[in-house]
């Protein structure tokens, strides 16, 4: 498997205890460190949960081990590292391999780590098993295709007589009402909602008569200029659209993120639209959790070094509120500046000639005044405002 037989002490990225604590707090994500030569240098327990490897089995392996053979043959791992080195990070959404050879779908990201001179010194890989989500999305695509096929097939067959058209509409109504996905029927021209199914009511909390007769914008926040234009075309006999991301407002005021697809359908000899919604709110939350996990790792100043923390501060920087700096006493500011430089409590106490307990008291007071909960947050807050540089 391409194992590197060097001693662990020779691996330049062996994590500090604080880094291990950050990794161990994110059990549902596999997070591991790759050296520039694509050898695994460190891991978290999420690797064992997602891939099935113990630490002794995984550290020292080639990063290619978790890729499927066809991706390795096509040079996908190398291209991913090149993209991360060039852009800072690269998406990693594809099939991967577990230790037992089984495949699973993972959504993740590879982030490049650089030294103060911009040289890449390693990579952090963070990913999560999203096989269930992938299967659900594939099922949605198949359902869309099958429904479109049925509608097209029945529409062609039922053009001959009004009676057959009525049968087709009855079949469509049956499928519509019993469908597992939230859906609405929109009339031609005016875009008014004619019917909603039970799944739509369950998703939004609205009763049918609270939605019918109005427009879909009554419960949908339009997501983009392109989607706005598509929504305005609903019911106009256009070609429809597939998998546009929208936000639906529920009756209770909650926002749900959905994939919307529109299929033109005949309604009493006119054109109408069937619009289906697939709820992806949990998937979006998982993506947000993934990005938060990356931030948690990147904020570990004791391991990533001062330059990485400064980069995080630059990313988060914009118009920075400095009013709270003025609220600090002279001694509190002295303590915060030394915290931002990576000094320990004992070192701060020695430099300022005060007791270690006094330093802890000052730090507690500073946390309250600048509204942070950890030393890492205090470091970032201070550096954003030029303290400790």
Tags for this model:
17 helices, 11 strands, alpha+beta, 6-stranded antiparallel sheet, 5-stranded antiparallel sheet, single chain, 389 residues
Structure description:
The protein contains 17 helices and eleven strands. 30% of the residues are buried. The strands form two sheets. The chain has a six-stranded antiparallel β-sheet. The chain has a five-stranded antiparallel β-sheet with strand order 2-1-5-4-3, with helices on both faces. It is flat, with a radius of gyration of 28 Å. It has helices spanning 17-24, 45-51, 55-58, 69-73, 76-87, 131-157, 162-178, 198-204, 208-211, 225-232, 281-298, 301-316, 323-327, 330-340, 345-352, 356-370, 375-384, and strands at residues 30-34, 40-43, 89-97, 103-114, 120-129, 182-186, 193-196, 220-221, 241-249, 255-267, 270-279. β3 (89-97) and β4 (103-114) form a beta hairpin. The chain has 389 residues and is α+β, with helices and mostly antiparallel strands.
Give me the strand/helix succession. Answer: HEEHHHHEEEHHEEHHEHEEEHHHHHHH
Main-sheet strand order equals 7-6-11-10-9-8
The largest sheet is: 6 strands, antiparallel
Molecular shape: flat
Radius of gyration: 28 Å
Structural class: alpha+beta
Tell me the number of strands: 11
Tell me the fraction of residues in β-strands, as a range. Answer: 15-25%
Q: Helicity range of the residues?
A: 40-55%
- Average pLDDT over all residues: 76
Q: Residue ranges: pLDDT <50 for 5 or more in a row?
A: 5-17, 301-305
- Number of helical stretches of at least 4 residues: 17
How far apart are the first and last residues' alpha carbons, in Å? 44 Å
């Amino acid at each position: 498997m391409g194992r590197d037989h060097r001693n662990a002490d020779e691996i330049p990225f062996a994590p500090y205890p604080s880094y291990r604590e950050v990794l161990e707090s994110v059990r549902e994500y596999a997070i591991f460190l790759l050296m520039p030569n694509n050898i695994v240098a460190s891991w978290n327990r999420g690797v064992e949960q997602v891939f099935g490897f113990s630490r002794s089995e995984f550290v020292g392996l080639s990063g290619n081990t978790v890729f499927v053979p066809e991706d390795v043959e096509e040079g996908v791992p190398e291209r991913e590292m090149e993209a991360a080195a060039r852009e800072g990070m690269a998406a990693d959404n594809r099939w991967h391999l577990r230790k037992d050879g089984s495949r699973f779908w993972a959504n993740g990201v590879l982030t490049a780590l650089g030294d103060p001179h911009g040289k890449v010194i390693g990579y952090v890989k963070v990913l999560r098993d999203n096989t269930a989500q992938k299967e659900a999305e594939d099922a949605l695509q198949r359902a869309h295709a099958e429904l479109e096929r049925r509608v097209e097939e029945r529409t062609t067959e039922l053009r001959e007589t009004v009676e057959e058209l009525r049968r087709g509409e009855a079949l469509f109504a049956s499928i519509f009402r019993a469908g597992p996905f939230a859906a609405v029927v929109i009339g031609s021209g005016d875009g008014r909602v004619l019917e909603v199914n039970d799944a739509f009511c369950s998703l939004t909390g609205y009763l049918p008569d609270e939605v019918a007769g109005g427009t879909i914008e009554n419960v949908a926040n339009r997501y983009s200029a392109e989607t706005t234009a598509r929504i305005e075309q609903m019911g106009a006999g256009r070609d429809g659209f597939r998998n546009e991301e929208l936000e639906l407002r529920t009756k209770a005021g909650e926002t749900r993120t959905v994939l919307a697809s529109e299929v033109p359908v005949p309604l009493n000899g006119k054109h109408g639209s069937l619009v289906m919604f697939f709820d992806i709110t949990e998937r979006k939350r998982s993506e947000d959790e993934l990005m938060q996990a990356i931030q948690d790792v990147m904020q570990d100043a004791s391991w990533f070094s001062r330059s990485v923390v400064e980069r995080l501060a630059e990313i988060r920087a914009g118009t920075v509120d400095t009013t709270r700096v003025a609220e600090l006493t002279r001694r509190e500011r002295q303590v915060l500046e030394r915290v931002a430089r990576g000094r320990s409590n004992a070192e701060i106490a020695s430099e300022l000639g005060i007791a270690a307990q006094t330093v802890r008291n000052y730090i507690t007071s500073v946390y309250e005044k600048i509204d942070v909960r950890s030393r890492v947050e205090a470091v970032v807050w201070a550096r954003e405002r030029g303290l400790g540089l």
